[in-house]
Amino acid sequence: MANKKQSRRVRIKHRIRKKIEGSVETPRMSVFRSNKHIYAQLIDDLNGKTVVAASSREKEIAAKKDIKKSEQAKLVGKRVAEKAKDAGIEKVVFDRNGYLYHGRVKSLADSARESGLKF
């Protein structure tokens, strides 16, 4: 079952990646979601470099033990938006990486929007 679910996500991921591409001005915001953690990074696809990255494994977020995973995702979204502002990035292209725009992925995106990133 897990293999079928993962292969479905990879198919969707490739379909999305054909259409979107990050640049220096508008990097691609890629989200990865594991069972315990969530990661977000802003990628410049033209140069093949990660500009900004944030995850729920960072000290400030990992120190909060009693919060739900969706709350962790909100904190990661806020953190990646802060780092993007420091790097001079205001606008991004959102890449949900084959995951449904629901739950943790949605709360991360909403939190990044509230913190000032434009999608």
List its traits.
119 residues, alpha+beta, Nucleotidyltransferase, domain 5, 4-stranded mixed beta sheet, 43% helix, 19% strand
CATH overall fold name: Nucleotidyltransferase, domain 5
Helix fraction bin: 40-55%
Tell me what the CATH architecture is: 2-Layer Sandwich
Compute the number of strand runs: 4
Order of adjacent strands in the largest pleated sheet: 3-2-1-4
Structural class: alpha+beta
Content of β-strand: 15-25%
Given the C-alpha coordinates, what overall shape results?
globular
Write down the CATH class: Alpha Beta
User: Distance between termini?
Assistant: 33 Å
Question: What's the mean pLDDT score?
Answer: 95
**Unreliable sequence segments:** none
Q: Give the count of helical stretches.
A: 4
Biggest beta sheet attributes = 4 strands, mixed
Q: What string gives the helices and strands in order?
A: HEEEHHEH
Number of domains: 1
Computed Rg: 14 Å
Describe what you observe in this structure:
The protein is an alpha+beta fold and 119 residues long. The protein has a single domain, classed as Nucleotidyltransferase, domain 5. Helix content is 43%, strand content 19%. The protein is built from four helices and four strands; from the N terminus they run αβββααβα. It has a four-stranded mixed beta sheet. Helix 3 packs parallel to helix 4. The chain is globular. The chain starts with a helix and ends in a 5-residue tail after the last helix.
